[in-house]
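ugh ok fine here u go
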Amino acid sequence: MVPILLILVALALLSGIAGGLLRAGWVLSLPFPTGHWLGNAAVSHGALMICGFMGTVIGIERAVAVKRHSAWLAPVASGLGGLCLLAGQTTAGAWLLAVAAVVFVGVNVVVVHRQRAAHTILLLAGALAWLTGSLLFLRRPGDASSVPWWFAFLVMTIAAERLEMTRLMRRRPGAQLSLGLLLGAMAVGAALSAFSPRAGGVLYGFSLFFLALWLGIFDIARRTVLAQGLARFMAVCLLGGYVWLAVAGLAWTGTALGLPLRDAALHALGLGFIVSMMMGHAPVILPAIARIKLQFGSLFYVPLAALHLSLIVRLGMGLYDPAWRATGALLNAVAIGLFAATVVGAAVFWHMRYRPQPAV
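structure:
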């Protein structure tokens, strides 16, 4: 089942990237007939990237962790939901994403039942945020009210994982409470955004900004960045992501106040923060869910640097020039492609280096 799901993950990612390039102004000429696929990918760009891609990956990881056959229904539903969106079957896709979120909530209830802790409760809260966003998408597919909830799902999931890691450090009194208050404010901001985009957006943006400060202060990455090898790479990914999270919070607030910063808000969060987290955790998560072993090396820093530089082009120079914004979007796609190629190369290198030798 995992290979099929990984194909759906790759399809959602590639289609989401293609749709994003189309939205950025690129005219894509592909060597095969696309029909309405590209247009559907552009319309459903956010749903494909957050639910079809990231939601399915997280669903696979959680299904592997809980070891229950029913848990696989979540990534299957989200993967097929992305496929339906690409086919133009928006209603069917929205229903499948809602089903995926419902099952995922159930999976996280199991996780909390097995280990009742602050980080598992936060994982459940993230699942509920995914469900809320998916129900809004089911009700109003063309409305943007689902986007803050979907992002909240990813942000809460990452925050939960980092909270678990901070157990290895001595936390200051009130650190856990302050994190809960920040994430609660983010959820309130997401809810308010459907009724008062200005007030909800400002609260949401402030919560992202101060969450970045919290992570920068309390995350163990401050210490592991001084280590070597994979631990240091993960820390660099995390700390760089926290900078972009702060940028996203400021841009989200500015957008709510009427400034033309929507592209910066969405992509500083979606690419700068979330994809940085993905790059940092992929060398650990991929072996766990796909049984693919990777040979880590310094080349992993190349796509990471490309991602950050491309975001500077897109969100810096592209702030006032649509041509630079489009160029930055293309470079974003190149950075993600470079990372995929690096992962494949690391897997091949490990296999060549450590494969069993035939008996003589």
